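Write out a record, fold above all:
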Amino acid sequence: MSAAILNEQLCFALYSASSHLTSLYRPLLDPLGLTYPQFIVLLALNEEDGVSISHLAGRTALGKATMTPLLKRLEQKQLVERHFVENNERQKKVLLTEKGKELANISEGITDKVFCATGLTKQQAEQVISVCKQLTKSS
């Protein structure tokens, strides 16, 4: 039996690419006081606002245990608000504030800069996105 070769592993290639992309976002998000997970939550809420924490966790592929402290920090920055769902005191919905919407509206410039830094063509990026979506649906 032989050992697996690291650079031939799909999981390592995806992990390395993800780490690299996140590192490209860092200098663009730091001046805004945002982490990458906070940024993707703002993007998700900009597309679909007023959703439950569970829905948001599923949409962003972040665990529910991650969401609560992340949302607390976004609330402290006045970017989101959490409100109890009417007739259900156990469930909360998350809403972007005006400040959060303004920040989400500059996201395209940030994502464009990161895309340019990858050196990928639009077609290559679409192929990678398609393969990643296929991988996540297969489980």
User: Anything to note?
Assistant: The longest strand covers residues 88-96. The radius of gyration is 17 Å.
